[in-house]
Design brief:
The protein has 248 residues and is α/β, with parallel strands linked by helices. It has one domain: Spore Coat Polysaccharide Biosynthesis Protein SpsA, Chain A (Alpha-Beta Complex). It has a 9-stranded mixed sheet. It has a two-stranded antiparallel ribbon with strand order 2-3. The longest helix is centred in the middle third of the chain and has 14 residues. The protein starts with a strand and ends with a helix.
Length: 248
């Protein structure tokens, strides 16, 4: 399995006004016996490595010299890819097409992290046992702000029967976390002709409609953090500090 981290978006809600990439905002981590601050991008990358995924690509804006410098200095084994135009999350994923090849891949937005390592591990284990693609989901109070999934029971797992991006009338309260496990076939479903904002959620729905199986793991809402919105950053710091204090 390969890893792909997207870190090339415009970050218009981050409050940074282009001065610093949101993926470089620090969060708290437990390293050894110490609680440290590291960019969330670093935390996402390190989580993949800790689960045996070492072939990892990071998709960057080619003009983003600061993040390039950080990755080269601190994550030297990462493959750097570029998204020439900021045409949405789906387009960023497409920039990793050649890197992914025929491999399954773990995809993570560079501004979000699942705090509970057990839930993260559960998803990877389900994929390894079944070979199926997998979404991480969380219950939210305002699902119309998110990509939303409908699910049905399948043994001890959930099977995703449909997804929608920011629906006006959500069919469930299960929102997609920006961490996914996919077979490479998903790339064929991304519509590169959408225009300037190529979404990824429609590709997931197209994959399901074509008969593809996608399973799901539900995580607690408090186990997902994102630094993508300025007013939520303080809460993200608080929750990562608590998680670091509780970790062994």
């Amino acid at each position: 399995m390969k890893g792909v981290i997207t870190a090339a978006g415009l970050g218009t809600r981050s409050g940074l006004e282009g001065r610093l990439r949101k993926e470089l905002l620090p969060i708290y981590l437990k390293l050894g016996n110490s609680i440290v601050l590291r960019p969330i991008l670093d935390a996402v990358y390190s989580r993949m490595v800790s689960h045996g995924i070492h072939d990892i690509a990071i998709v960057l804006n080619p003009m983003d010299e600061i993040t390039h410098a950080y990755v080269r200095a601190n994550l030297p084994d990462a493959t750097i890819l570029h998204q020439p135009r900021q045409n949405g999350f789906g387009d960023a994923v497409l920039q990793a097409r050649d890197f992914i090849g025929d491999s399954d891949f773990l995809l993570n937005a560079g501004d979000g992290l699942i705090l509970d390592d057990r839930s993260y591990s559960t998803g990877l284990e389900i994929h390894r046992k079944t070979g199926s693609s997998l979404l991480y989901l969380m219950k939210v109070e305002n699902p119309s702000r998110y990509g939303v999934a409908e699910v049905t029971s399948q043994g001890s797992c959930m099977r995703v029967s449909g997804v929608e991006e920011k629906p006006a009338n959500p069919k469930s309260d299960l929102a997609l976390c920006a961490t996914y496990i996919f077979r490479s076939e998903i790339l064929e479903k991304i519509d590169s002709k959408q225009g300037r904002n190529i979404e990824f959620t429609p590709a997931i729905q197209e994959f399901i409609s074509a008969g593809g199986t996608i399973l799901a793991v539900e995580i607690a809402r408090d186990d997902w953090i994102s630094v993508g919105h300025a007013v939520d950053y303080t809460e993200s710091l608080h929750r990562t500090l608590n998680a670091a204090r509780k970790s062994g």
